[in-house]
């Protein structure tokens, strides 16, 4: 049996981390965008072997438990203990790992949904399993609930699935430009001094957004957040300013990765691409993914 | 400006009503199915008149405030007080009113989403407004949160949007047969003696479903619930038994309407239709609507 899941890439615009000893109560406040590119997970389940085996591969390459601890933990929890056979989890990422696209949560949630679909379970329990292991292994705090909500989401009450509350903004037909330039360690940022500024500016941005909720305002507040926390500075800020000359809504920084994202109206796509390609920078243009991740039997 | 929303028809399989003085805390436990047919709402907003006017029409016919009190209340709350112009809300229903398809919630939620899209707001606030007026006017307790969840939903914690928690079952490619035979007053049922049986049997069904969650089991438990509460009896029960001869998963009763529904595998559709059309009964076949309701600008 082959099951396929798609989990959108999730870009955080601004956030407030909320830590808690109970991983289901840990989470974040903030806002973000889900893309129609992201993580595809194919789960192949075959019986007929003598032992219970779980294998995971990233982009076609087998990975060990250490590099894929979150997805291995999810799979180990959701494959029944008495199952005898081979479980292969093939995860394919449209964006590079560690660049702030929620790949870790995408792999965890995609794995949880595929295995729950196969072995029994519900959406909520699968999502809670993914969130729990994301938090315990410090993969992320808000990606799973953001990805479940789809669209342009606003985390108004922190926590995992069933506990946190996620709102959605209405939006018109936007494209999303992403400029992924490098990794930024979530752990290092959250362990550093900047975390206090993030808490203050993140709460302020959320309050302001809810007072007058729109995607354009979210981007404006994201940019304020990125600059005031000091996360966006130097060359990356200069690039954002270059981009802003040809688009109507401010670009901002991918939280957390060394990269930018922007909402583009259809008639702005060409000029925005012009700016980044003139500088020989990598970029991608995606649509916004509405609604939940996808799960289903895969007939290849 | 013209905005269109689609809200799926929502059939409750079994339920437990949960009353509360705070309408956002009132709701229900239970399970249900969302269809790809339901309520389409077109909101037309025009300025240039001298007063603030709100008009509502059901299936093309203007309706007064009394007959559409829920949607009028929603619209009156979401159209700004200082707006001067004409707001026309055209609601079209694929199924008859009062037959248990969640039309009242569909109209309320569709109206709330369309007006929030137009005048500002978020999904959560729009949905809470719809739920609140549904509860205050006793339109329903669980339809709005069920319709927001989409798919096959399980209400595991009662309450309105942002408070109640709704889970989803995984499902394969099913069609839904509906046999709508008449009205059943939710108010009368909930005011009657049967409410105690509903509470006992509804809780039991939910517990059993969560222990082993699947759409097939939901239908089996729905049927047990319908029979044990005494809501399904007589001719309607006989019809359910006739249907069950040609399908693999038990049919059950639409809560609350005089009617039946059933999950059909593709190869069962023809025989199931045969049973109801031989008896000259009205019927419809729909797909399951996954994900959220739809909202967007309408270019007619």
TrEMBL record, chains A, B:
Domain GHMP kinase N-terminal: 87-151
Domain of life: Archaea
GO-annotated biological processes: coenzyme A biosynthetic process
Pathway membership: Cofactor biosynthesis; coenzyme A biosynthesis
Enzyme Commission (EC) number: 2.7.1.169
InterPro entries: GHMP_kinase_N_dom (IPR006204), GHMP_kinase_PoK-type (IPR053616), PoK (IPR012043), Ribosomal_Su5_D2-typ_SF (IPR020568)
Catalytic activity: (R)-pantoate + ATP = (R)-4-phosphopantoate + ADP + H(+)
Keyword set, alphabetical order: ATP-binding, Coenzyme A biosynthesis, Kinase, Nucleotide-binding, Transferase
Single GO term (MF): kinase activity
The UniProt record lists the keyword ATP-binding: yes
Coiled coil: none
Record function comment: Phosphorylates (R)-pantoate to form (R)-4-phosphopantoate in the CoA biosynthesis pathway.
HAMAP family, sorted: Pantoate_kinase
Similarity annotation: Belongs to the GHMP kinase family. PoK subfamily.
PANTHER family the record matches: PANTOATE KINASE, PANTOATE KINASE-RELATED
Name the record gives this protein: Pantoate kinase
